[in-house]
Amino acid sequence: MVSPVAPAALLRTLLVALFAALLAFAPVQARAQQLVTVTTTVTTIVTWIDDDTPGAGDAGAEDADEFAADDDTAALLDDAGDDTGVADEADLGATRRYAPGAGLAMRGPAKTRFGPFAVVDGTTARMSGDVDGATPRQFAAMLAAFPGVRRLEMIDCPGSLDEEANLILARAIRRAGLETVVPSGGSVRSGAVELWLAGSTRRAAPDAEFGVHSWADEYGREAKDYPASDPVHAEYIGLYREMGMDDAHARAFYALTNATPFDQVRYLTRDDMARFVPLN
């Protein structure tokens, strides 16, 4: 006759078995619960130089097509109807185009300052800083106080935190008939490129740099995320026409800028810009 197992002994047996099972499965579970995080930071700065650069103002429609052909955003060049008819319907909202540098270059001595503008003398102002919602009013105040200003030197201009204000400012610069200049060592990037384009005459030193990339809205969507028919594209293309580009060059330049994501910058040279607009 088999004697019954004592309850205490049975309990010990069960605990030993359970502990052994936990030891057997623990390594597998630990491996399953491991979280591996890989962080990759990629910074792309490309200097794009075309050795076949023609003289200022000599670029034709074929040259503009050449720029657009290599861009994934060439679909934005598709004819979406009458651009001028829908441009007024564009709502840029909190759209921005901004590329900060390591540090803002100083504008030097000035008589007085209006936001990013520093008046050097009766005919010259320097710009260093970004554009926000207040900048068009600051520009208007500067011209009211110094109506003789005719030259805007762009020292270090990272772009715009408010694209609607930036386009308003570009048109104001154009109406005022200012000469826009990027001196030696100067840098205009992002939305500030539109401000340089707005000059009635444009100048740039051989080492001037122009940084371009896509705009982004408040939700992080970029130009490529909007259909070609969206009025926001017509707003930019229309501005470039106002600044003196023909339709082919306006569309090609817009596609070129949007081929680079918002969080990267593609740097162009003085000669690159001369493919799209005349320089003086």
Give a description of the structure:
By secondary structure, the chain is an alpha/beta fold. The chain has helices spanning 7-33, 61-69, 83-86, 135-145, 163-176, 192-197, 231-242, 247-258, 270-273; strands spanning 45-48, 97-98, 112-114, 117-119, 124-128, 151-157, 159-160, 179-182, 187-189, 201-204, 209-212, 265-268. Strands 1, 3, 4, 5, 6, 8, 9, 10, 11 and 12 form a ten-stranded mixed beta sheet that branches. Helix 7 (231-242) packs across helix 8. The chain is globular. It starts with 6 loop residues before the first helix and ends in a 7-residue tail after the last helix. Residues 1-5 and 19-89 have low confidence and may be disordered.
SSE map:
Elements: H1 7-33, E1 45-48, H2 61-69, H3 83-86, E2 97-98, E3 112-114, E4 117-119, E5 124-128, H4 135-145, E6 151-157, E7 159-160, H5 163-176, E8 179-182, E9 187-189, H6 192-197, E10 201-204, E11 209-212, H7 231-242, H8 247-258, E12 265-268, H9 270-273
Helix pairs in contact: 2-8, 4-5, 7-8
At a glance:
The protein has helices at residues 7-33, 61-69, 83-86, 135-145, 163-176, 192-197, 231-242, 247-258, 270-273; strands spanning 45-48, 97-98, 112-114, 117-119, 124-128, 151-157, 159-160, 179-182, 187-189, 201-204, 209-212, 265-268. By secondary structure, it is of the alpha/beta class.
